[in-house]
Design brief:
mainly alpha; DNA polymerase, domain 1; 3-stranded antiparallel sheet; 3 domains
Length: about 475
């Protein structure tokens, strides 16, 4: 039986052994090896998982050093030698390093002002100043204790951009404390972008939090270069970059008809089993969404056991209010029965490939739908999530109450009595509301579709241009 990945037995002891990436082997050698100091395979597996982190840190450090300019590397070495006595070998190396660096700065000061300025900041930073890569890595680990992987990535994405703006992860944090430099980054990468005002404020807040919640409490620095920076925004819909609620519009009946028919054509004509399965799941996801108002991740997370007795027991993937019970519309009950078949458990939509930072069930199906939508010529402002607005619009047009709509969508009612004290409407009350939702949809095979031109009107064709 072969040994588990990255584990090797030598003289009765397990070792961690793993190849470095090929482009780093000249710099680091071919293998990363470490004794796990155990003869137990179970214990070796536990220690192996912890050693993965050391391997990745070694790779990140090597890649950072390779990206650095030689003078940045010299400046960093000078910084680390500063604390040694003058009469020590390290002190002599410090003096010699400054002589080389000074000659280089005099030669390139005019030609490369940004690089020379950064090199000086690195060399003059305290010897104990931690580098940005190490600070960010520890910060990301702390965030993942309370946030999902995608949530942590969203929080730190702008910090990655700022680190690149500072010259890379090998730069010590004390070399990046200039408020003017921080403002130049905010102006270029946040203010002068086409992002909404809300997103701009969120990104600036993420930079502030990096210092206020992590760097300053850990006594690395005492001030926050982003602490006094502000972004002026225009309140309301009239602002240039404010996101208008009017941009979120429902799918029209004609657009839904076209989207479903195009997906049906893909399913019927493709020769690739995976594409056929994705197209089938996309059709089913659209039909389930427009008759239930569920989010795509809620649909893809549904299990067979969540679809009993004519009700979807929605597990909820976003907020506590999202955990709810939604009556199954009579128009999609046959579809649900067909999807379940004789199964007792398993996902309602079979064959979904999980993906993304949080391994979401909807990740790859959502990407496939986006690619098809673009290929079919639909506008960018029309996405799968707009099916919730289609569902809401149908309910409003059928005079359903606002409380019924909130309960079905998994929203808070916004009132203490409704959210805290009320047990909510009965399933039968919500069933009467949901049965008011109607769509004039017809999906044919490609041959039938070619013959039946009455459903393919010029108005429908124009809706997807």
């Amino acid at each position: 039986m072969p040994e588990p990945s990255y584990l090797k037995m030598r003289s009765g002891t397990y070792y961690y052994s793993r190849k470095y990436p090929r482009h780093l082997q000249e710099h680091l050698g071919k293998f990363f090896r470490k004794s796990l100091k155990t003869q137990s395979l179970t214990e070796a597996r536990k220690r192996r998982d912890k050693t993965h982190r050391e391997f990745y840190e070694a790779v990140e450090t090597a890649e950072r050093e390779l990206r650095q300019h030689p003078m940045e590397k010299l400046a960093d070495d000078i910084r680390k030698l500063r604390a040694h006595a003058d009469d020590s070998p390290e002190g002599a190396a410090y003096d010699g390093g400054w002589d080389i660096l000074t000659d280089w700065l005099e030669k390139y000061e005019q030609a490369k002002p940004e690089l020379t300025g950064r090199v000086l900041k690195i060399a003059n930073a305290p010897a104990t100043s931690p580098v940005l890569d190490d600070l960010l890595r520890d910060y990301e680990r702390s965030l993942k204790k309370t946030l999902t992987n995608s949530g942590a990535y969203a929080r730190t994405r702008v910090i990655h951009d700022w680190i690149e703006h500072c010259g890379g992860g090998g730069v010590p944090v004390h070399a990046c404390m200039d408020e003017d430099h921080a403002w130049s980054f905010v102006r270029e990468h946040i203010i002068e972008t086409e992002l909404s005002d809300k997103t701009k404020q969120r990104r600036l807040s993420a930079l502030r939090q990096f210092f206020d919640d992590w760097i300053i409490p850990n006594r690395h620095v005492k001030t926050n270069p982003f602490g006094r920076l502000k972004i002026s925004t225009v309140r309301g819909r009239s602002g240039k970059n404010s996101k208008s609620i009017d941009k979120v519009r429902p799918w029209t009946d004609a657009e839904l008809q076209t989207m479903l028919q195009q997906l049906k054509d893909v399913h019927d004509t493709t020769k690739h089993p995976r594409t056929r399965e994705n197209a089938s799941n996309a059709i089913n996801a659209f039909l389930l969404a427009i008759y239930s108002g569920m989010r795509i991740e809620e649909l893809c997370s549904l299990q067979v056991e969540h679809c009993r007795d004519g009700v979807f027991a929605v597990p909820g993937t976003k907020t506590p209010n999202a955990v709810r019970r939604v009556p199954i519309h009579s128009a999609i009950q046959p579809l649900v029965d067909r999807l379940i078949g004789d199964r007792e458990t398993g996902p309602l939509l079979p064959g979904l490939a999980h993906g993304g930072y949080d391994q979401k069930a909807s990740q790859n199906l959502g990407k496939a739908i986006s690619r098809w939508k673009k290929a079919f010529g639909f506008p960018d402002d029309l996405v799968f999530h707009n099916t919730r607005k289609s569902f809401t619009t149908k309910l409003e047009q059928a005079n359903a109450s606002g409380r019924d709509i909130d309960r079905l969508l998994g929203h808070s009612t916004g009132k203490l009595a409704g959210d805290v004290y009320s047990a909510g409407q009965t399933i039968e009350q919500m069933r009467r509301a949901i049965e008011r939702v109607k769509y004039p949809l017809h999906i044919h095979s490609p041959k039938r579709w070619a013959k039946d031109r009455r459903l393919w009107t010029s108005e429908q064709r124009g809706s997807v241009k």
